[in-house]
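wait is this the right file?? whatever heres the structure
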């Protein structure tokens, strides 16, 4: 589903990714852990196509297509979703307006018909309920005045509405208390744990992996994968830290 081969990337001329290779099959959830500055967020932004992140070598194939040759909106239309560590605020644009436009733009790119207002609101209510979010929150400007936990829950509602086939989630557990962590974890499982979908879950800590059980755990250090293993690897890192493997 996602095949990354010998990926090199720079930010502002500074090398960050240094020969990273990784393969995620449909139906799998892979967790990436690593110390600060290892390149975890850079990997997420490169996959999403964020400007300023220059790929200098290697390749990324997504469902048989050259992902790096596509613009960000084309990647999204293919079914790629990027969850941000710090979701941005968009004053003056309601969540409902933003999500309906985004969803219908993707449906159009795939040759589908746009959802009517009534159809969209029904879908939005279902996804908001899944994340235990009041629909009144979705009528407010995107993330404006939201707490850290509310921003992450709203982002999971976005993911549920857009229904991607692959999600790259960059430190989704950042800023979540215990209750919000459980809700977000359950949301990820409900939306993405399916045989035809995949997830790349970037995190510092084991705690999210208590709710979203990964099939494979990778350690990213100095811009490349230095160790891979099963879920037990995350527990080892929690006990011993990254120095033992980085």
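ok assuming it is, sequence goes like this
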């Amino acid at each position: 589903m996602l095949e990354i081969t010998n990926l090199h990337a720079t930010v502002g001329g500074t090398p960050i990714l240094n020969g990273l290779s990784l393969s995620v099959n449909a139906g799998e959830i892979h967790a990436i852990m690593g110390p600060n500055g290892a390149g975890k967020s850079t990997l997420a932004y490169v996959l999403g196509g964020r400007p300023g992140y220059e790929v200098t070598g290697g390749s990324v194939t997504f469902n048989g297509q050259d992902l790096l040759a596509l613009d960000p909106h084309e990647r999204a239309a293919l079914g790629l979703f990027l969850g941000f560590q710090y979701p941005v605020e968009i004053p003056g644009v309601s969540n409902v307006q933003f999500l309906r436009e985004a969803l219908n733009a993707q449906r159009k790119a795939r040759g589908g018909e746009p959802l009517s207002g009534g159809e969209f609101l029904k879908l939005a209510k279902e996804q908001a309920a899944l994340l235990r979010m009041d629909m009144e929150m979705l009528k407010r400007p995107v993330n404006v005045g939201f707490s850290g936990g509310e921003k992450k829950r709203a982002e999971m509602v976005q993911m549920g509405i857009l229904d991607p086939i692959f999600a790259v989630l960059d430190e989704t557990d950042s800023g979540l208390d215990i209750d919000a962590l459980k809700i977000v974890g359950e949301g990820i499982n409900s939306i993405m744990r399916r045989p035809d979908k995949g997830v790349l879950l970037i995190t510092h800590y084991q705690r999210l992996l208590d709710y979203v059980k990964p099939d494979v755990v990778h350690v990213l250090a100095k811009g490349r994968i230095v160790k891979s293993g099963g879920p037990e690897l995350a527990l080892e890192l929690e006990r011993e830290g990254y120095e033992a493997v980085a």
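The mean pLDDT is 91. so i think its the right one actually
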